[in-house]
Please model this.
Amino acid sequence: MDLLGRDELLATVRAGFARGRLLLHGPVGIGKTALVDAVLAGSPAGGPVLRSSPVEADRGIPHLVLADLLADLLTDVRVDLPEPQRDALDRALRRRAGEPDPLALRQAVLAVFREVDPVVVVDNAQWVDDATADVLAFALVRARTRALGAAREPVAWWRGDVVEVPPLTVAATAELMARHGRVDVRLTGGNPLYAVELAGSAGAVPARLLGVVGHLLAAQPADTRATLLVACLVDRPGLRLLVHCGRARAAAELRDCPLVRVDPDGGVRFRQPLVAAAIPLVLPPEEVRAAHARLAGLAADPVQRARHLAHAVTGFDEPTAVALLRAAAAARRRGTLDQAAELGGLAAERTPPHSPARAAARRLRAAGDALGAGRHELATALAQAVLRSPGVPRTQRVRAQLVLVDAVGYARTAAGGMVGEALTGAKGDAALEAPAEYRFAVHSAVGGDLRGAARHLADAVLLARTAKDVRTEVRSLCSLALCQMALGDATAAGTLDLARRIVPEAMVVTHDGTLWAAARLDLFADRLQAASDHLTALLDHAGERGVLAEVIGMTWAAIEVWVAMGRCGSALRRATECLRLAEDMGYDLALACYGAALAEAYGGDPAVADALARRGAARAEADGDLSFLVRNLHAQGLAALSAGNPEAAVGPLRRAVKLELDMGFGDPAVFATRPDLAEALISVGRLEEAAGVVGCARAAAVRLGRRGVVASLDRADGLLRLALKDPVTAERSLSAAVEAHRDLGQPLQLGRGLLAFGIAERRRRRRGASRRLLEQAREVFTESGAPRWAGRAAVLLGDTPEGTALAGFEARIARQVIEGASNPEVAGRLNISVKTVEGALTRIYRKLDVRNRTQLAARLRGERNPQI
Model:
């Protein structure tokens, strides 16, 4: 059974169940029943499974759950019982009138459990009737019966282990929602049920979940409900703020409330964000409006005051709309685009209906803020509201279509025909046609049609110039420069210069401005420090403005530069932050996965890099984004090379290079895949194919002056000559690679060149020269924060037993294993699943060329002739 993101928890639950009795607890929809089913499906066959799933109304019926569990069993199985016990059991199961003798009933159930050895499963254990609970508490322990329970909270009668089911991680929630649709991940709180329901409802809270929240609220006292309402309406609720807002007894009212958690510092957090979002929808509207009115009178912040005032009134009101627009502008200046989008949307709702164009303009402005804040579902909803409104001019309809295109980003599959529709609707109006052509070109490039993209970008430049739309003209020129560079067209720098002459100052440091294009061209031309400076400025500016989509869009490019500069630690930290942000937003995951995989491939764990790259490639392929499919395939190949497994690298690298060539990329520096493919091919003996890859890439790299790519190709050529037993030419190529990478300030590529050169010298029996080169390689890798690569140099130096360059969790697992720990013991000590341990051991055995634990211990301890 596929339980997304639950591998570790499932291993813990299985271990607890194997010990005897385990109760899972957590809120509705958290996945307790799914875990129970998975454990049962994976358990060895034994006695019968007795299962009951009571509802709340069953709580008051004595012995109902016991009858659920035993009635069918006793029909099929005969258990000899003394007459008093048989009589008590018949009375409990309502086969005979009267109440059962309590002691005789307990003894009867104990005898049945001992005879049959069942597995007892109780869902909704909080609603087990008291009479059944007393019997089960007595019999389960004494009979040593295996049992699984699920409840919203721990129950007093349970005798056995208790495990809380935590929320899904953000990553797992995002992946789950991607299977069903897309919505704000933050709203789900990691609850699988909420995630699936919300994804399927396009972000609106569906009636089923409103019913769940309504039921949870109904169980709370009236005063507690009132305090919860205030808590969900204010930003960053806390006990002190709630008291200020008129809830004087907030601490007492929330102390035992299961819907919130009160922190030691007085902060109040809803256990499920969806509950906070749904409370205003569940409670009576007049009660919600009254609460907003009170809060508006208490709010010192004009932005918050305007928000509460808007929710306190009904219908259309232009003065309120104007106040909201002022508040939105203030939020925008603060860099809180999320708030600006919400306030702008409210302003549009309060705009009188006789001004449809004015309401549409306000929605489109709010949609732009929502896009910047990463609220793509909100932007989509605002744009769709414009398209549904009667009386909206064509200009605004086309702009709404363009918002819909921007909201799906690089996901060409999701965009469908929207880009073409916008372009068709814009025909004849240069002011509309220019931005539509620009977006059509971007989607063409993402889909691999670089030449078509370049034509549309050139058209967009001319149209924007006609319409005096400088912003679109600059965006189109910058993208055209990048397209020309990818095609190997030397005029790219001239095109960028044209954009620099006209760019507005505010646009220099945006993702579609001149600094971004310059950073990319600098990277490919090996001007790493300049590229780093540009990207740092871009990231700082995006962070200050709160434009989260730009932060993701720039971080992956910065990681490429930082890795090239040997700053693996910085790359890893920023990659982790970027991936978390992308998962929170449910947006640009292919980009974020690539950045994280690249950083892990050099500076972290190759197994993690492989998993991230595979995830990124799958997402890019689903989106129709060929550019990031190539990048993630390259990262997957790098992960395999880092792990010392060139056989696994060949497949993804070969596919990446084929895609690159099919798309018409003429500049080998854009993806830099071909030197790595050549190296992998050489390692597996595909020398003729490797020679073709090197020769084809070298011609383009030399023509375009890509010194870094030429140096990497020299390294591959040196390894090829070495395999062809031409050591003199190999030495010449490897020496050229080392000197070029040293001169260009590319430490990781320098380290790889030194490593290859050291191997070449060793094969020529030049031990002293080989050792010096390998020591330099280890030092370079260590200083760059690339421990796995430094470990490979250490192995060749003999400082570590050959083949033992393990890192990360593999090294920890290996250490535990050779100390005698079993797989379950290793899993328990390292807080990972047994399945994870088994998979890691398989990789370790393959990597070290051993077949069992004895050989592994011998290899790690440096023994030369381990026993088989």
